[in-house]
Automatic annotation (TrEMBL):
Principal EC category: transferase
Protein name stated in the entry: 2-isopropylmalate synthase
Binding site for Mn(2+): D13, H201, H203, N237
Organism in which the protein naturally occurs: Oceanobacillus longus
Residue ranges of domain Pyruvate carboxyltransferase in the record: 4-266
Pfam families: HCS_D2, HMGL-like, LeuA_dimer
Function: Catalyzes the condensation of the acetyl group of acetyl-CoA with 3-methyl-2-oxobutanoate (2-ketoisovalerate) to form 3-carboxy-3-hydroxy-4-methylpentanoate (2-isopropylmalate).
Pathway assigned in UniProt: Amino-acid biosynthesis; L-leucine biosynthesis; L-leucine from 3-methyl-2-oxobutanoate: step 1/4
Similarity comment: Belongs to the alpha-IPM synthase/homocitrate synthase family. LeuA type 1 subfamily.
Amino acid sequence: MSQIKIFDTTLRDGEQSPGVNLNKLEKLEIARQLERFGVDRMEAGFPASSKGDFEAVKAIADTIKNTSVIGLARTIKSDVDIAWDALKGAENPAIHLFLATSPIHMEYKLKKTPEEVIETAVSMVSYAKQKFKEIEWSAEDATRSDWKFLAEIIEKVIDAGATVINLPDTVGYTTPVEYGKLFRYISENVPNIDQVELSCHCHNDLGMAVANSIAAVENGATQVEGTINGIGERAGNAALEEVAVALKIRSDYYPYETGLKLNEIKRTSDIVAKLTGMYVQANKAIIGRNAFAHESGIHQDGVLKNAETYEIITPELVGVTSNTLFLGKHSGRHAFKDKVKEFGVELSEAEVKEAFDQFKKLTDHKKEVTDDDLYTIVMEIKTDSSSINKYQLEKFQVQYGTENVPTATVVLKTPDGKTVENSCPGQGSVEALYKTIDSLIQENIKLVDYQLNSVGGGKDALAESHVQLIVNGETVNGRGSAQDVLQASANAFINAVNRYMIKINTAKMKELVSE
Ligand SMILES: CC(=O)SCCNC(=O)CCNC(=O)[C@H](O)C(C)(C)COP(=O)(O)OP(=O)(O)OC[C@H]1O[C@@H](n2cnc3c(N)ncnc32)[C@H](O)[C@@H]1OP(=O)(O)O
Ligand SMILES: CC(C)C(=O)C(=O)O
Ligand SMILES: [Mg+2]
């Protein structure tokens, strides 16, 4: 079996999904889970793109030790310098430089001739080599590039010091046979190709990202790039869990394996869905709710006689277990801490206290607190700490009846410690609630997206809400959970506003420091 490396870009290309906006703490929690999952490389972000991304990449580089941490950069000196500042604390600092090679990108986007593109790529790889030992170079839009030109530029960037060459299908344009031929061509026509690793990076615009990635592996790729749950720009990237499980299940045919711990798939998928707000559809391969459900009689009959008649993957393989019954009203702190440890999440003493208090409160209303419930509580605590004063929901009431105009009354504490109160009507309960909260906040707020999901099943399941707001022109996401759907909705709205407050306060503090 040959070992295929897994390069995860959930935190960079995945975060390019419209509407996804992760903060530093959320990125750090996802990075920790990716490390547990066993990815070989993780692209933590694009350090030169914003201060927030710089700080997140730096925090991940300084924390993650068992996975190589990489940052994306354009072929611009300042991007390379900023990437170095973010990544120099990593165990093995690595940079991912990209430059487009297709005629359309070179002429219209970069406004460079092919010769200038070669000269820029070579000089920036050489420049980066003064700092980084490991350099991945990507020929952006490789699948719409001239193959002879690709072979020429690749040979030169390898001579300049690149250690990994990536041939991205940037716009999801290729098909498995064609992409396979491209890898074969590059393997056979670049004389120094054996000095580097060859990587594939597929987008899913035509629904072929996973198939294309496997075709690349069959034709010489030694690394697959992708994201958890296939999130990413437009229709997304290749879903890594699908690639890994396909290689495992079809090991009778494919002589390749990955170092991923497949039984961490469910947990990795869950944390990414929860923190990005991009939930997977029920029929999603590998981890969708229906992936292991058998509905029709003939299938059920077959499965009862021998599960393998209709089941090629077992739920246990990918870490889908029946949602373990967790602790109850009478459970103590020790059992609680043990459970949190099992999740692989580290909590400080103060965080344990906060999580335990919330868990106890939940047991007053919910007989059976499950792993999913507890994980939701723990993640809220791990990803939402900030020392700045924030808006706090003191109390609220919503009146709703089929014959009444829904009306909400809300009492809020503002960041400067004042208590404010108002009531507003709305078309529905959530609208009334949101209008009232909005009226109490001195910012210009527009609601762009609202989602409500249940955590697990049952009448008493926790509700989890995601919102996207535009606050004074800035897009921010918010997340909230509670047993009541209106409380979860209110929490999500206020969480988004508080993230905006954190964002502008951090920017203001930086200005003061630099003055
Ligand atoms: C295929 C991919 O996924 S590539 C990664 C895409 N990801 C992102 O763009 C997310 C983060 N991006 C950003 O925050 C911003 O685009 C920034 C901060 C990087 C740049 O912002 P701005 O300076 O305002 O430039 P803007 O985004 O409008 O345009 C991009 C510029 O980079 C140039 N550029 C694009 N790719 C490259 C490259 N690989 N190397 C050098 N320059 C490049 C473009 O030609 C354009 O230059 P121009 O201003 O001279 O025309
Ligand atoms: C930055 C590059 C590798 C990319 O994401 C793409 O081309 O899709
Ligand atoms: Mg991409």
